[in-house]
Amino acid sequence: MGGKALAREPVLDVGCGTGTDLVLWGRQCGARPVGVDLSHQMLAEARARAGDCSVMQAHSHHLPFSDGVFAAVRGERLLLHDTDPGAAVAEMARVVRPGGRVVLVEPDMEEAAATCPTLYTESGSLTAWVRRSFAQPRSGSAVRRLLRAYGLVSVQSEVHRERCDAETADTVLQLRACAAWAHESRGTPPGQLRRWLSDLHERDSGSAPFCTVPIHVASATRPTS
Predict the structure, then answer these.
(1) What residues form DSSP beta bridges with 220?
(2) Is residue 136 a contact partner of residue 88, using CB atoms and an 8 Å limit?
């Protein structure tokens, strides 16, 4: 979503976080971005960098806007944390204007976990941890279906595979926290955890790929009639 088509048009970023993408969207497209998020802390950071962008607190299931007011609506890593992703997509479809686009950018964290080295996957603890830690660990795999389910058409999608080093993987998948949880909740032997943490420590200083995170990017149009 970019270029002259959105110049000075109102666009909405649902779950805008600290506003980094919101500001970039406005600069690249010349649009008038609006961002919503639930987190007071995130919104404080967003307001500090927002410039001409507008940000406000709102729940993705109850967007405080009339029907069909935005030329485009986006959400990134929004459904990953949502216990009812359909409610969020329904609201995004409602507030986009006829002919406007809804864009979802979502990872598949369960698939990402499966690409980690065997040492981390052999016990099944990492997959169990991912399923426990994210409301929708496979949100990326669901985006096409959700867009269609709420009346949007002309669905387009692609998958980008981001290769992560160990440090990034630890941040994304919370590997050290997973190790502690596996020991306390699943009775994983201490020796296995020591090997896990030792290996992770050794890999932290390098840039070699550790895992691959599939990022699903899908967009669809609200019908004009």
Answers:
(1) 102
(2) no
Instruction: Tell whether 162 is covered by a domain.
Output: yes
pLDDT tens profile 102-125: 999 999 999 999 999 998 888 899
Q: Give the helix/strand (H/E) hosting 210.
A: none
Task: Give residue 157's domain range.
Answer: 59-221
What DSSP string describes 86-126? HHHHHHHHHHEEEEEEEEEEEE-HHHHHHTS-HHHHTTSHH
Residue 29 lies in a domain: no
- Would 2 be classed as within a structural domain? no
The answer to whether 37 touches 21, Cβ cutoff 8 Å, is no
Q: Among residues of the chain, what percentage have pLDDT more than 70? A: 97
Question: Which domain CATH number covers 149?
Answer: 3.40.50.150
Amino acid of residue 217: V
Q: Is residue 23 in a domain?
A: no
Strand order in the sheet with 153-164: 54-57, 32-37, 10-14, 70-76, 96-107, 211-221, 153-164
Number of domains the chain contains: 1
pLDDT digits (tens, 9 = 90+) for 53-88: 899 999 999 999 999 999 999 999 999 999 999 999
Q: Which residues are 211's β-sheet partners? A: 164
**DSSP assignment letter at 208:** S
- Work out the burial of residue 194: count CB atoms within 10 Å of its CB; fewer than 13 is exposed, 13-18 middle, 19 or more buried: exposed
Contact (Cβ atoms closer than 8 angstroms) between residue 152 and residue 102: yes
- CB 210, CB 166: distance < 8 Å: yes
